[in-house]
Amino acid sequence: MADPLPLPALHATHAGIWLADVTGDAREASRGEAIARAAETPHIILNAPLVGQRLGYPELSGLDLLELFAFVHPARFAVPTAAGLSRALGLEPPASDADAAAALQRIAQRLLAVFDDAEWREREGAWTSNATLHRLGWGWAPLIGSRLERPERGERMLFSRLKQWDESAERPPPRPVLVSPADAGSKLDQLTGRAEAREGQRAMAEAVTGVFAPKPAKGSPNVLLAEAGTGIGKTLAYLAPASLWAESSGGTVWVSTFTKALQRQLDAEGPKLFADPDERAKRIVVRKGRENYLCLLNLEDALQGAFAGRAAVLAQLVGRWAAYTKDGDMVGGDLPGWLPSLFRRAGAAALTDRRGECVYAGCPHYRRCFIERAERSSREADIVIANHALVMVNAARAREDAPGRILFDEGHHLFDAADSTFAVAFGGQESIELRRWIVGPEGRSRGRRRGLAARLMDVASYDEEGARALDAAVEAAKALPSDGWLQRLVEGAPFGPIEALLAEVRGTVYARAKAQEAGYGLETELAEPDGALVSGAAAAVELLDSLGKPLAALARRLEAVLEDAPDWLDAQARARVEGAIRGLSWRRETVAAWIALLARIGGEADPEFVDWLAVERVDGREYDVAIHRRWLDPTKPLAAAVMAPADGVLVTSATLRGGEDWPAADSRTGALHLPGPAAHFEAESPFDYAACAEVLIVTDLRQGDIASLAGGYARLIEAAGGGTLGLFTAIQRLKAVHARIADRLAREGLPLLAQHVDPIDAGTLVDIFRDDPRASLLGTDALRDGVDVPGESLRLVVMERVPWPRPTVLHAARRMAGGGSAYDDRVVRARLAQAFGRLIRRQGDCGVFVVLSAAFPSRLLRAFPGGVPISRVPLDEAIARITERLRVGASAPIELVE
Fold it and tell me: C-alpha distances in angstroms, 54 versus 3, 12, 352, 405, 767?
């Protein structure tokens, strides 16, 4: 055993605070002592923002083990806890909180010992990065520098180590082929490794083959709606025929999901399809929107001094990761989700292309660009794993890589995804982003942000008419809102027509909206506008029209340049012009949608849309003023722009019908708006829900009594011994309950995690929850669908009340069109079905679903699977049943299923 690291350690949880001295001896300490010690001497800590929150000392700094892990093992996953890091490094996890402080020292020793390992595969670039980090004052740098041997030869620059992508010929269109049900069944057997697949899984694989038949007529894709209960194994059921069709036709199948968790799960199935890693990398590609990927030009600027302080340290660690990442995905990829949160959001977003400012071939890193590599790889792939939003955007914009065969998993989210994709929002935040995209940096703005003129300077210099259009667009954009616009609205001194309109919008909202003292956003229907609002909209339309015309003229000139192909138009210039045309097309569409929305103010409302005015707020603080437009039925544009042009579409989910009949599923997925009828498939879950699950409706907790609610949650979590997912319909109630019970549970050895409380992203919270069977997690709607935690780590789900829809302007319109209270019931049943689906994920799982609502309507009970016992009981009886069922269920054998 190596000598203890001569550094003290600090560990803090809701159960207490522990200090370990340089010899490794740990003792409990008070909050005041811990803060004083940490201020005097750098301590080894784990997750500084979280520890600082526990101490009530947000300025806490020290030697954060997570930062050291990110340096030593970039692009490697680890659960960010003492136990998680210990397991990742082959150490014995601490047995208790008291042992965790000394465990931090052991983890640090193990990480620092890696530098002596000749087989350390992430060595290249480490010495150079650490030298820069030393100059930046990073606490770990001296300790690393004393152990890391300087390389004999200078290390290659980061960007020269990145793999380049190669141009390839355009892929021919897929051949029309048929996939037989028998072949799909055989492929499924091969993928599952079983001589005979499960009955429901095989039936689904055979049904999905119809999606890959040639389409019968233009605008009439082959559509299958498939409700496959949890445990069927629907992932391999559709991948089997999809992989056969892709191989025999030479085409690409797009598999679309709603959550990152399912994307990771699909990617993990890759070895079953293609065992060879190199072949798998070519045949299966994960695609996301541009804003998810690291921008190498932004990173270069950050590494060369555009970032300062803690943001500069983050840039160096991201640079380490960039050399070893699989695909450059910063959001849900192999960049640890906890890394940006350590820096309190200092700089992470600025390392991606969130403003659409890409210069394409004008970038010195174009041939190494992660975004370009992903786009090109997807054109040659058999299977592309993407999300609903990207698939819809690519199809709606008629992109060259718009999918022809689409498999929508998590299909119950199609309605919501389409609702967001085809929405229009005109407000201060959107306007100022457009101004920045066109005008570029102004005043004291720093960073690489470049305006349209800077991006097209060399191109416009060859074309006088294009240069005039560019100048006109820049001049018109200067009348859009600029920095400080919201403060000017509050002070009653708006600048320009857009800000004047937004001032009228703000005044109208505050005059008409209710609940003005609440901390949430305010809104009111766009109806019966007064004269000032109508005239303000007319002036704004005039300004937007003066902006849209030069943008259109510039796009036409750039298209003409491509057609004429002058001598100066080399491959790089062509790619830059093509990128500019795409960007202009997107912005022109946006401006046109804004004009259509504003032109309706004072005129007749369009029954296809719902329009409203809003003041967006967080905790009572305003951050935007906007006019919103949503489709009353967003599946209409979904069907027209995405599904109709495709050849075949599968929409599948375990809760596709949400407890309703097939017409309801046709309506919610867009199939109702297609010329031909959709095929339907149903396979019930193989789980014996009557034996492994129970629904309890607690009848004696008074709604609105936070003390009783918190006490109920604490007792339920104690009865289950942790492993509880608590779902809330309001963030404030979640925070209030957590504040009351976190310390109590922690003292019992039951850690309590909470979304919107802990300074950790939701994905990492789920990872921690999954890793510790005694932990519990409180969250809101995002966790209702995004948690996939099989086994004993999730054995109790508690909903604090019936998840009724919020009474927004949009919901009121859809409720009126959808049948009043019957529409509410459909929404709630779908939410309950999804929440219950978190509980039983594999054979052997056992759990209880609890709703803390005495007034739970009986008509909602069909949201739960048939046969599940449902009882209305007081809290004491619920606790007794949970104790008994989970004690018995804990001994049940666990059989892993796909």
Answer: 30, 6, 31, 50, 20
pLDDT for 402 beyond 80: no
d(CA 122, CA 155): 13
Q: pTM for this one?
A: 0.91
* Separation of alpha carbons 446 and 427, rounded Å: 24
- Where residue 4 falls (left for φ over 0; alpha for ψ -120 to 50; beta otherwise) is beta
Q: Report pLDDT for 516.
A: 52
Percent of the chain scoring above 90 in pLDDT:
71
188: closest CA among 263, 270, 273? 273
**DSSP string across 853-877:** -TT--GGGGGGSPTT--EEEE-HHH
Question: What's 5's DSSP letter?
Answer: P
Mean pLDDT of the chain: 90
Tell me: the pLDDT tens digits for 35-66?
999 999 999 999 999 999 999 998 898 999 99
Q: Which residues of 21-33 are buried (b: 16+ CB within 10 A; e: fewer)?
A: beebebeebeeee
H/E/C letters for each residue in 17-39? EEEECCCCCEEECCHHHHHHHHH
Instruction: For residue 777, report the phi and psi dihedrals to the nearest 5 degrees.
Output: -140, 130
Instruction: Tell me the three-class secondary structure of 724-744, residue by residue.
Output: EEEECCCHHHHHHHHHHHHHH
pLDDT at 888: 43
* pLDDT tier at 658, thresholds 50, 70, 90: confident
Inter-CA distances, 749 with 47, 460, 855, Å: 20, 67, 34
d(CA 137, CA 312): 10
Burial track 195-211 (b if 16+ CB lie within 10 A, e otherwise): eebbebbbbbbbbbbbb
**Which whole number is the average pLDDT over 804-820?**
93
DSSP 76-137: ----SSHHHHHHHTTPPPPSSHHHHHHHHHHHHHHHHHGGG-TT-TT-TTHHHHHHHHHHTT
**According to the model, what pLDDT value does residue 898 have?**
32
Distance CA 91, CA 68 (A): 16
Q: Write the pLDDT tens digit of every residue in 769-799.
A: 999 999 999 998 777 776 778 778 899 999 9
DSSP state of 305: I
> Which residue intervals of 606-750 are DSSP H helices?
635-637, 662-669, 689-692, 706-720, 731-747
Q: CB of 7 within 8 A of CB of 42?
A: yes
Q: Are strands 522-525 and 609-618 parallel, antiparallel or unpaired?
A: antiparallel
- For the packed helices 126-135 and 310-322, what is the interaxial angle rounded to 10 degrees? 180
Residue 234 has pLDDT above 80, yes or no: yes
Whether 196 shows a pLDDT value over 90: the answer reads no
Q: Which of 315, 331, 328 is nearest to 261 (CA)?
A: 331
d(CA 265, CA 270): 9
Sheet holding 284-286, edge to edge: 284-286, 383-387, 253-257, 405-408, 648-653, 222-228, 679-683
Cβ burial, residue 679 (10 Å; 0-12/13-18/19+): middle
Determine the Cα–Cα distance for residues 477 and 480; give it in Å rounded to an integer: 5
Exposed e or buried b per residue across 497-517, where buried means at least 16 C-beta atoms within 10 angstroms of its C-beta: bbbbbbbbbbbbbeeebeeee
What does the pLDDT read at residue 451?
A: 78
Residue type, 764: T
Spatial distance between the Cα atoms of 888 and 884, rounded to a whole number of angstroms:
6
Tokens found for residue 560: 């003409």
